[in-house]
Give the backbone structure.
Amino acid sequence: MCIAFLKRAIFLSFVSCLCWASVGSAGAEIVARDIRIGVHKSKTRVVLDLTTNVKFTIFALADPYRIVLDLPDIRWQVPAAAARRNGGLIAGLRYGQYQPGKSRVVLDLRAPGTVGKSFMLPPGEGYGPRLVIDIKNVSRKAFLASIRPPAKKVPRATQKIVLKPTRKPAERPLVVIDPGHGGVDPGAIGISGIFEKRVTLAMARQVGKAIQALGRQRVRLTRNRDIFIPLRRRVAIARAAGAELFVSIHADSIANRRVRGGGIYTLSENSSDKEAAALAAKENRADLIAGVNLSGHDDEVASILIDLTQRETMNYSAQFAAALVPELRQLIQMRRKPHRFAGFVVLKAPDVPSVLIELGYLSNRRDEKMLTSPRSRAAIAKAIARSVDNYFRVQKR
Ligand SMILES: [Zn+2]
């Protein structure tokens, strides 16, 4: 077994790290069977049950305290209950694909903690190879000292705002559909254990098909598989592709299981109400949830001044939202105020009208049933496609 210090990973440029490598059999598919937590007096132990030894890197992030475990491509065959496990220093955990060829586990800590030991345990006691991480409670000072300072901000002057390409006259307008969450960020967890990221992807694919069937717009998805994409990257994908409409698809969850209904959200400087502001804050946490270190990023999108272009874009977004409400209302129960405003990061393209649809609550049995039924999904997708078509028809006039 060899131990290597890996210096090259991009993330390690601004994080502290314990980097142990244990060489596994090359080429074989790696399957994760479970993630377990053991609470001991002096440490919290996290065990990942695997089918082979793996190379891994670990780093920590502050505010909130997180420990991130980066792994090679892994097939996740863990029980549904694994996503809800917690105990000791671990407040919650997530796992999934982070980038092509790279999987990630994010551990949310209740208090500052550092990794004391991390190692591969050979098969035994009825288990296969196990990756073991021992986390011990430390002071905030010690935690911060274990993390290298974040990378320097890029000076504003060197940043260019990429201009969105314009469409050739003969080309059909492009609609970018954005399935919310993905990979290591599961989004909301449904009453049956289904992840929002699966519901949004299935719905986005269906919406894409429905738009193509009408044949008057082109479609692109920000993701077409179970992979994590940072919020700003989703905006960048839409702009780089020359999108003329951006539709982000989500489903919410809430402690009160009786709450149900869909809602449509567009960007504004001031939220329309507290609930919309809370929802935006929740959705804007996606990057944090996936263990992205935001401290080194310059908030390019957020800092773009809301100028005339953006105001016009916001008006178009509101027009599309208004077109959506009556179409969706025929199929899904809508919230009391169906169109609301808040500062969603994913809606911040200055020149692409953007709308976020919350299709319903996965924490409500009826909403979850509706959103997981292929039949009702197809009907909702057609309604969204009709609204898209109506929106472009009005624009042409
Ligand atoms: Zn969501």
Q: What stands out?
A: The two ends are 69 Å apart (CA to CA). Residues 156-396 form a domain with the Aminopeptidase fold (CATH 3.40.630.40). Confidence is low (pLDDT under 50) at residues 1-26, 152-159, 296-305. Residues 180-181, 187, 196, 250, 283 surround zinc ion (CB under 6 Å).
